[in-house]
Amino acid sequence: MNELYPMKFNPVFLDKIWGGNRIKTKLGIDYGNLPNCGEAWMVSGYHKYVSVVANGYLKGNELNELVEVYMGDLVGDKVYERNGDQFPLIIKLLDSNDWLSIQVHPDDDLAERLKMGKGKTEMWYVLESENNAQLITGFNKPVTREEYLQYFNQKKLTEILNFERVSKGDVFFIPPGRVHALGPGILLAEIQEASDATFRIYDWDRIDAAGLQRELHTDLALKAIDFNYYPDYRTHYKEELNATVDLISCPYFTTNLLKFNEPILKNFEELDSFVVYMAVEGNAMLEWEEGKMELKRGEVILIPNLIEEVSLIPEGESKLLEIYVI
């Protein structure tokens, strides 16, 4: 069996009613003739859009097929024991040119009870944002289920939701149960469980190309919503040059930020997991024992668990997201 190596994948591009063109204009990633490219799935184990390898001798193979063949050598023994043949994450680029629907995701227990597969925990890292761009996350005051329904039925739901102004580099963790929505003018990276379990609460009374409103999931959302109020919905961190900074650590993924302007050696010998790097600022070169590969802004590379050491060499100053499972 040939040795595993760092892999890139063919992105899956999705046209969305709220999408824009920043994936092409800001990141230089060509998505063809889609009028409103809202999502680029860069790495995915979700059955509807499983990633296909774009480089090397495994080119053309689906990621989940490779997990089935290589098991712990690819994803890590513990990761394989928990998730089987499914790669456990989806890593996307999102470009919002309009408000996304206000929505909520179930946790694993609720999703399982509803026969929806896995729940959905996710996080956002903002790559670009226009002046005064906003998103919604959580409530702006303590709310009971009854109060929520009152505001919802009176079409005043936004009055109790928490709006946040966003800037490049902002991080938001979106656990199951948290009501959320992206606003216009934001390009970001999303890291999440390999699930598309979503309950749409409100879609701004939008009409699609067929003259229809998108389906809402009012009753299901009530089963999932966390009605608690939290005083701070933002993830706070401090960048350090040539150091790895923790952003998010949860049972489904760990995400770190690496800002660097000189080569850095990474050793994964103690880590029983694959590692994914996404370039969010600048470009870098990835070198390992058998070769090297360029990582351009917006691109993603998956490093198999079998590879214990890599060198990261920046082009000027670069920023990478580092993602793995523990």
Count of individual beta strands? 19
Give helix % range. Answer: 10-25%
Overall residue-averaged pLDDT value: 96
Beta fraction of the residues? Answer: 35-45%
Order of helices and strands: EHEHHHEEHEEHEEEEEHEEEEEEEE
Low-pLDDT regions: none
Q: Helices and strands: which structural class?
A: mainly beta
Main beta sheet strand tally, sense and closure: 7 strands, antiparallel
Question: Which CATH architecture of the largest domain is right?
Answer: Sandwich
Structural features, described:
- Helices cover 14% and strands 38% of the residues.
- It is mainly beta.
- The protein has two domains: 12-235, Jelly Rolls (Sandwich); 243-324, Jelly Rolls, CATH 2.60.120.
- The radius of gyration is 20 Å and the shape is globular.
- The mean pLDDT is 96.
What is the topology?
Layout: E1 12-20, H1 22-25, E2 37-44, H2 63-70, H3 72-75, H4 77-83, E3 89-96, E4 102-104, H5 108-113, E5 122-129, E6 134-139, H6 145-153, E7 161-165, E8 171-174, E9 180-182, E10 186-193, E11 199-202, H7 218-224, E12 234-235, E13 243-249, E14 254-260, E15 264-267, E16 275-288, E17 291-295, E18 300-303, E19 309-324
Antiparallel strand pairs: 1-2, 2-3, 3-10, 4-11, 5-8, 5-10, 6-7, 6-9, 8-12, 13-14, 14-19, 15-19, 16-17, 16-18, 16-19
